[in-house]
Amino acid sequence: MLRRRAARDEHLALGERMQQAGTLLCAVALLDEFGQMNGSVLLVSFPSRSELEEWLHIEPYMVGGVWENVQIQAAQLSPGFAHLAS
């Protein structure tokens, strides 16, 4: 919890810049049955895998050890949600 708190402001600022740039499409907190956060999902859009990796190397939650288990999965937006990636 302390690591998350220490990196939170930088993480949110980077997320805002990414949202404005169009690389962060959606961010979701995953909750347990008691409403406590127990994970998250980010939908991001990068032109290449190497640019995704570059982001991970500067993402404050990665650098600060908050995110310890990251799964990367390629996906394609449904046409009804294409506006998110524009």
Attribute tags:
86 residues, alpha+beta, 3 helices, 2 strands, 40% helix, 19% strand
Strand order of the largest sheet: 1-2
Number of strands: 2
Using only C-alpha atoms, the radius of gyration works out to 14 Å
Proportion in β-strands: 15-25%
Uncertain segments are none
Mean pLDDT: 94
What class would the helix/strand composition place it in? alpha+beta
End-to-end C-alpha gap: 34 Å
Let me know the largest β-sheet. Answer: 2 strands, antiparallel
Total helices: the number is: 3
Approximately how much helix is present in the residues? 25-40%
Q: Give the CA-based shape.
A: globular
- Write down the secondary-structure element order: HEEHH
Short note summarizing the structure:
This protein is α+β, with helices and mostly antiparallel strands and 86 residues long. Helices cover 40% and strands 19% of the residues.
Give an overview of the whole structure:
- The protein has 86 residues and is of the alpha+beta class.
- 40% of the residues lie in helices and 19% in strands.
- It has three helices and two strands, in the order αββαα.
- It has a two-stranded antiparallel ribbon.
- The longest helix is centred in the first third of the chain and has 20 residues, at 2-21.
